[in-house]
């Protein structure tokens, strides 16, 4: 089992590799497209609008809105999208390791 410090270094390394290669932007764009296609974005926006309607716009901060929608939004991400993104990350890392 790796320690917290090693895990943080590994995450930083992966993030650096993703950013330097341009893969981060590609994955981000792909994720946004897939979330839009599946209606996830519309569902999250509807939840946010419902909260604003119920509490009144003057009674809700952006932070409160984020806190109230975060859990359900994360739980609502379709499993196939998560699987797809993880698979793309794994493939990216395999390619980076084999290139060295």
Q: What can you tell me about this protein's structure?
A:
With 100 residues, the chain is mostly helical. It has one domain (4-99): Serum Albumin, Chain A, Domain 1, CATH 1.10.246.140. Helix content is 84%, strand content 0%. α2 packs antiparallel against α5 (79-99) and α3 crosses α4. The longest helix is centred in the C-terminal third of the chain and has 21 residues, at 79-99. It starts with a helix and ends with a helix. 0% of the residues are buried. It is found in: Nucleus, Nucleoplasm; Cytoplasm, P-body. Belongs to the ENY2 family. InterPro entries: TF_ENY2, TF_EnY2_sf.
Give the helix/strand layout.
Elements: H1 4-21, H2 23-37, H3 40-55, H4 62-75, H5 79-99
Helix pairs in contact: 2-5, 3-4
Characteristic terms for this protein:
transcription regulation; Serum Albumin, Chain A, Domain 1; about 0% strand; 5 helices; about 85% helix; protein transport; about 100 residues; mainly alpha; activator
Helix content: over 70%
For CATH, the homologous superfamily is named as ENY2/SUS1
| Number of DSSP strand runs | 0
| Largest sheet geometry | none
- The CATH topology is Serum Albumin, Chain A, Domain 1
Number of domains: 1
CATH architecture: Orthogonal Bundle
Top CATH class:
Mainly Alpha
State the secondary-structure class: mainly alpha
Nearest-angstrom radius of gyration?
18 Å
3D shape: elongated
**Low-pLDDT segments:** none
